[in-house]
């Protein structure tokens, strides 16, 4: 039986994934683009994700698992699942070659038109593939958050969507300079984001046969680990690459404060 929030959750996941297309559009408008603004929003996204993972998602996972296994064992299982989530996304990250890693964002000045077009096209396509692989667990994180709590799902969607913007830039810039086609660059950028809803659906249909209070808690704890890793390994380093250190940190604190306030208001 399909859960009540299923279509709402999958819609949010699709929205988060397709934000790679926003990055593609911003790349074409790079002359008027403010890198400090992106740095601040990436820091903000990291703040939202870290705070909601450690305060809200981890807590909900611990409560669910404590009901099944008892207080102490439930806490242990939650902690182990949290670090398993980190390990999964870290392994995926390690398997992606550094040159095609979506963390290595291509800037306009790094893509001169005289450069080898076949090499640029290869870079863009491999970036799209790498981002697609990364987006699988991110899609599951967004979907699970929305399935468990619609308000929480919206917060995660906004954070993931902001995080996906520079990934869209990483795909579209080399493809645009290789082909001269904005349509192709946008197409591959948006296509890489489709793996988020695919990851959500694959995770849901694989797990739903054994989905209960225990599996919910374990998955939620793993999602928290995935989001913390993304924030520390992707969002903050990329924010500092685009702007100043303090811009990223102020964005981080702002994201935490806004998330804290929203949780207090809806508590």
Task: Please indicate the percent range of residues in DSSP E strands (runs of 2 or more).
Answer: under 5%
- In angstroms, what is the radius of gyration? 18 Å
Tally of separate helices: 10
Please mark out the parts with pLDDT under 50 across 5 or more consecutive residues, or reply none.
102-115
Give an overview of the whole structure:
The protein is built from 10 helices and no strands. With 267 residues, it is an all-alpha fold. The chain has one domain (10-28, 37-265). The chain is globular and about 60 Å long. It starts with 5 loop residues before the first helix and ends with a helix.
Short structural description:
The protein is mainly alpha-helical and 267 residues long. It has 10 helices and no strands. The longest helix has 35 residues, at 35-69.
Can you tag this structure with a few keywords?
267 residues, 10 helices
Write the layout of secondary structure elements.
Layout: H1 6-17, H2 20-28, H3 35-69, H4 71-95, H5 117-148, H6 150-179, H7 182-193, H8 195-207, H9 213-242, H10 245-265
Helix pairs in contact: 1-5, 1-6, 1-8, 2-6, 2-7, 3-4, 3-6, 3-9, 3-10, 4-9, 5-6, 5-7, 5-8, 5-9, 6-7
């Amino acid at each position: 039986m399909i859960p009540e929030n299923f279509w709402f959750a999958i819609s949010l996941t699709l929205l988060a994934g397709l934000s790679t297309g926003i990055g593609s559009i911003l790349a074409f408008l790079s002359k008027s683009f403010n890198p400090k603004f992106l740095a601040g929003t990436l820091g903000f996204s990291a703040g939202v994700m870290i705070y909601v993972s450690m305060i809200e998602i981890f807590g909900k996972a611990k409560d669910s698992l404590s009901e099944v296994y008892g207080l102490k064992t439930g806490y242990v299982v939650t902690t182990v699942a949290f670090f398993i989530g980190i390990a999964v996304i870290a392994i995926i990250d390690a398997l992606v070659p550094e040159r095609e890693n979506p963390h290595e964002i291509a800037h306009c000045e790094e893509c001169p038109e005289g450069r080898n077009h076949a090499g640029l096209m290869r870079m863009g396509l491999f970036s799209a593939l790498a981002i697609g692989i990364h987006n699988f667990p991110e899609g599951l994180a967004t979907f699970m958050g929305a399935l468990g709590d619609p308000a929480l799902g919206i917060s995660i969607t906004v954070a993931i969507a902001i995080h996906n913007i520079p990934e869209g830039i990483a795909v579209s810039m080399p493809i645009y300079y290789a082909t001269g086609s904005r349509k192709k660059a946008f197409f591959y950028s948006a296509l890489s984001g489709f793996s988020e809803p695919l990851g959500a659906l694959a995770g849901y249909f694989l797990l739903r046969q054994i989905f209960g209070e225990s599996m919910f808690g374990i998955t939620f704890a793993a999602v928290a680990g995935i989001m913390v890793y993304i924030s520390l390994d992707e969002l903050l380093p990329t924010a500092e690459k685009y702007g100043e250190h303090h811009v990223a940190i102020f964005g981080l604190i702002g994201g935490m404060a806004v998330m804290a306030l929203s949780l207090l208001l809806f508590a």
